[in-house]
Structures are given as structure tokens and as C-alpha cells.
Amino acid sequence: MQLSTQTLSHLTGRVTTPTYDRTRLTPRIVHLGFGAFHRAHQAVFADILATDHGSDWGYCEVNLIGGEQQIAALQQQDLLYSVCEMNGDHWNGRVVGVVREALHGAVDGLDRVLEAMARPDTAIVSLTVTEKGYCYLPSSSSIDTDNPLIRHDIDHPRQPKSAPGVIIEALRQRREKGLPAFSVMSCDNMPENGHVTRNVVLALARETDGALADWIERHVTFPSTMVDRIVPAMTPATMEKITGVLGGIQDAAAIACEPFRQWVIEDNFVAGRPEWEKAGAELVADVLPYEEMKLRMLNGSHSFLAYLGYLAGYQYINECMGDDNYALAARRLMLDEQAPTLRTRDVDLTAYAESLLARYRNTGLKHRTWQIAMDGTLKLPQRMLDSIRAHLRQGKPFPLLALGVAGWMRYVGGVDDQGQAIDISDPQKDKLAALVQRSADGDERVKTLLTLSSVFGAELPNNAVFVKAICDAYALLRAQGAKQAVNRVANGR
């Protein structure tokens, strides 16, 4: 039996179902990127608002590239899907009912997507398209004009393929119709994600229509956000467990996640917004300190564990945490090397670090190190390199951050400590492979990878202290392997 409006009554007592009139919801938010994280995070906040506070804000879900199956499943299930919270062996489910429309750019046509974004009721366009979906350079937060999608959109602005291009075309249509602008809200893990989105959208618009770019600059807001919830990639075992929670009901769009969720939002919307604060979100004037805290302490330690854990043969984050040296390294990385670089105020960073470590130990999550290790060329700058720059300015050592960067370099070398090939998933996979192939394993490998200016910029590769720290950490990994290297550095040996 498949999840649908008719089968809701068959669900077990462990599952919360929509108690509100779904027909009253208006899809005022068009969301680009109906992936796992959005399903488990922003849509859940909307569902709580509809259930507990009578909100009539609904979603139009859109996938532009890939994800055809998720949209098809949603359409076949009366726009319903389930979210299961995993805490060890204790699982609870929730059927989310706030989706009122689901479209795929390639299947339903770009015109349908643009029409939804250009409707008078659309107040917000939000995004979870991962870092690479913004077509930007992490080292400078500027548009990547060499990106094939951006090149296409410059040549064909009325038939865009990139998320920034689609947003610009929708805004052009609204301006032509005399409709007010919407707000564009990024929910991806990037520092100042609203500013990045604004920079990319305005830069692309200026390539084709200066007047439109000026209109966007005057009328559109790009609120930044900080989002936090661990959402592992789905596996057959996870899907089987969810089906059990749902009492045998099949849900092809189901997702599982940890119980914890956090959302910090810059309160800067031109056409209204839901009352997210009633569902537990924090509305603030400046998100950046929260973003940096999460990116460096959570995401930075996650990447550290992912690269060094995978090299050592640990498949899941909770397995890394079962190794006392990895747990100690993660804690010391957060408190000794990441926390001192932050601008947060009135936050107990020690308590925050301990809460993160407890979340990492959740045996129900099965968060794969390989999944976290994806797209390192886009993640490394904000998760580790910005902190290293702060330490270099202050003349402070950064042994764990150096080990994390060296771990990434060993990882993209394509072979783990057991001699097994690594399946590298990265937008610059081919360039990384070429750099690895033409460099000898050792200092030469490090210095060759440092020429990747989109990651390291121009300053770090010319900083002798930085280069030596990475070379030394890489040499330790090469000589002793990840487990012993983590042991030595975590314990200050």
C-alpha cells in the first residue's frame, strides 16, 4: 500500500499526520531543491506551523536538475511524504502535508516552473541546491563565469539552466507583469549564504540586462540563514525501517534524520514570511556569527572525521566516535582551533561542542563518511581554511586543522589506508585527478594541490607557515596512516 490521502488512516500511532485542511494552504514559497535536507528541515517547520498555529503557507517544490524520482513520487502520493526521526532504536514518524504542488524543470517544463515563481502569491523563493548549485567560487564568493550552466545562461537568459538564472528570469517576468519582487532565501551551508546568492544573481543579471539587475538590487532581499539537522543519505535498510514505522505503508519520498533541528533566519523579507519563530526558528538581524559557528564547529569537525575516518576504514560517523582518539580530536578541533576564531556572543561553545559530539554518537543515524566527504573543493574554504587564516594572522598553531586539510589531500589521492580505491565525488573531480596524477606523493603532491586557486586562493599557497604545516601533516598521514596520525595529533605528541 502506498502513502496517500486515503491511506493516512492506516498509519500507526507512532506517526503524526496532517490535521489541518490542506486545501487552505497557498503555495507562497517556491522551493528549488526538493532534496533530503529540505524535506527534513524547512518543510517540517512549515508543517508544524500549519498543524499547531493554523498557518496557510504552503510549498511548491521544484527540482531543476536531477531528482526526477522524488518529484514523481510526491505527485503520485497526493503530495505527501514522511519524515522519521532516529534516536538509536527509537524512531518516530511525521507525514508532511504542506506541499501543494511539485514540478520538475525537465519533465514538466521550465515554463511551468517560471509560471509558479511569477505568480502574484509567491512571496519567497528558497533554495537547497548544495554549494555547487550556486555556480560560485568559494575562495572569493563570486560567480564562476567558466561554469557551463552560467555560460549557457549568459547566452540564453530566457531559457536558463542554473538556479541563479531561473531566479533572474522569474524576476524579469514579474517586473514585466508589474508584480512586486519576492525574497530569495538560501538554506545551504555557505557563510553569508544570502550575500553569496545576491552576488551571483546580480553578477549574472548584469551580464545580460543591466536595468533588470538594478531593479533586482533595489527590490529583492536575500536573507541569510543557518540550518542544522543531520540527514543521512537513504539506504535500503533505512527505507525498510521507515516502512515498519509507517505500519507497512510504502513512501518513495521518505526521509530519516536526527531529532535535533535548528534554523536561524535573517529577518529581511519584502513580501511577508511565515511565523517561523512559532515553530522554533530564531529570527535575527545578523546570521553570520551563527553560520560561522555551525560551519566551523559542526561542519568542520564533520569533514575532519569524514576524510580521516574514511581513510582509516570507518564507514559511519558514529564508528569514528567509537574511537577515543577520533572523539578527542573532534572535541579539541572544535574548542581549541575553531571556537577561538568565532564572533558569537552569549553562546556556551563548550556546551555546543558537547552537544555535537553527542549527536555524532547517535547510532541510529548511520551518517556515511563518504557522503560528508563529497564536494570538498566547495566545502574546505569555509569549514577549515577561513579558520586557518585567522590562526595565521594571530601567529597561532593549528595542528588539527592542518591534519584535516592534509586528510582531504590524501582522500582525493584516491586510495585509502587499506589500499582500496576511493570513489571521489566532487565538481572538480577531473581536475583533482589530473593534479594527483602529475605529482609525486609527498610534498610535491601537497604543493600541486595548493595551486587549486578556487579552493586555496592566492595567499595561502605563498604562506610558508601554512605550506609547512600541511606538508608535515601529509607526511605523517603518509608514514603512519590516519588512525595513528589522529592519535598523535589529538594527544599532542
Distance between the termini: 58 Å
Question: What summary fits the major beta sheet?
Answer: 5 strands, parallel
CATH architecture of the largest domain, please? 3-Layer(aba) Sandwich
Average of per-residue pLDDT values: 96
What does this entry look like structurally?
With 493 residues, the chain is of the alpha/beta class. It has two domains: 8-284, NAD(P)-binding Rossmann-like Domain (Rossmann fold); 288-490, N-(1-d-carboxylethyl)-l-norvaline Dehydrogenase, domain 2 (Orthogonal Bundle), CATH 1.10.1040. Helices cover 48% and strands 13% of the residues. The chain has 20 helices and 14 strands. The strands form four sheets. It has a five-stranded parallel beta sheet, with helices on both faces. Helix 5 crosses helix 7 and helix 6 crosses helix 7. The mean pLDDT is 96.
Give structural attributes:
single chain; 493 residues; alpha/beta; Rossmann fold; N-(1-d-carboxylethyl)-l-norvaline Dehydrogenase, domain 2; 2 domains; five-stranded parallel beta sheet; four-stranded mixed beta sheet; 48% helix
